[in-house]
Structure formats: C-alpha cells, structure tokens
C-alpha cells in the first residue's frame, strides 16, 4: 500500500512536470512568433531602403492615408534615414550606417530565435520522453486498482486527470 502511494506521488510529480513543460512550450512559441515577425519587419525595412536607394531624382508614389484613401506624392532618394536604436531613441544616419544598425538588430533577433528554437526542441524531446511513460504507468496503476477492487466487490476507477 505504501509503495502504491509513493508511485502515485511520483506520477503526480511527472504529470506536474509535463504540464509545466507544455506551458513553457506555449510561451516559447509566442516568443518565437514575435521574433519571426521582428526579423520579417526588419527585412522589409531593409528591402524598402534598398529600393529607395535605386531612385534617381524623384518618383511618383501612391501612399495610403486611410483604408479607403491614398495620396499621390513625389519621393526622392533620401540622404539620411532615422533609425530606432532602442529604449525609444532614434538617430539620423546615412544609408550605409542605417543598414549596419538594422542588420545588427536583425542578427541579434535571429540569434535569440535560434536559442528559442533550441529550447523548444529540448522541451519537445522531454515531453515526448515523459508522456508515454506517464501514460503507461497510469494505465498500469488503474489496472492494478481495478483488480484489487474487483476482488473486494467494488468498481472504482482512477481518473487520470487526478494524477
């Protein structure tokens, strides 16, 4: 009886660990999506800047100002760009320096994204290792208790959600 109680406690700890890992996995997926969006946004900015650098003198462009309204404007090749450097601060820089700043920001985000992906991989491996062990142990425990209860004339099942 004492052994079953200890086994039950172990199963509860495994189940709690599994829940924690799954919660961490969900949080990491949210962070991963935010980082991927950041990389995409920075790449879009770099692509737009490269297009602006191809302008000769000035070009016409249509700029949306509202969902159903746009304006015609003339765009000229910018001499300088204003780029955010963090903590709400921005600096005015040449194309080359702005590109370096944005490339560095993108690289840092990609490095963080790599670390997140590694942690996700590690958690998935832990979850895939523990879940089947937990499921088998719960099933065995249920079968043992059913056998014991059938012998005593009672038919009570363990709810796996309680473990």
Helix/strand/pairing category: alpha+beta
Mean pLDDT: 87
Domain count, please report it. Answer: 1
Report the sheet with the most strands, covering strand number, pairing sense and barrel closure.
Answer: 2 strands, antiparallel
Q: What can you tell me about this protein's structure?
A:
The mean pLDDT is 87. The chain is 67% helix and 17% strand. It is an alpha+beta fold and 163 residues long. The strands form 2 sheets. The protein has a two-stranded antiparallel sheet. Strands 3-4 form a two-stranded antiparallel sheet. α1 packs antiparallel against α2. The chain has a single domain, classed as Helix Hairpins, CATH 1.10.287.370. The protein is elongated and about 90 Å long.
Features:
163 residues; alpha+beta; Helix Hairpins; two-stranded antiparallel sheet; two-stranded antiparallel ribbon; 2 helices; 4 strands; 67% helix; elongated
Write the layout of secondary structure elements.
Layout: H1 2-53, E1 58-66, E2 69-76, E3 81-86, E4 89-93, H2 95-152
Antiparallel strand pairs: 1-2, 3-4
Helix pairs in contact: 1-2
Offer a quick outline of the entry.
This protein has about 160 residues and is of the alpha+beta class.
